[in-house]
Amino acid sequence: MTGKMRIGINGFGRMGRLALRAGFGHPDLEFVHINEINGGAKTAAHLLEFDSVHGRWTKG
């Protein structure tokens, strides 16, 4: 494969946040866009950082 695979996440609910966590830092992936209609960037950042099952996310 040449270059990174560019990824957009449509919906930043439970599954969208888990997808970002799973792929974050992978050398062949580049997250280029997150589409979410509910809440804003601050809300999304908070929900990504604090997860009731997986705990606090400190990467990024």
Automatic annotation (TrEMBL):
It holds the Pfam family Gp_dh_N. SMART domains: Gp_dh_N (SM00846). Residues 5-60 form the Glyceraldehyde 3-phosphate dehydrogenase NAD(P) binding domain. InterPro entries: GAP_dehydrogenase, GlycerAld_3-P_DH_NAD(P)-bd, NAD(P)-bd_dom_sf. This is Type I glyceraldehyde-3-phosphate dehydrogenase. GO terms for molecular function: NAD binding.
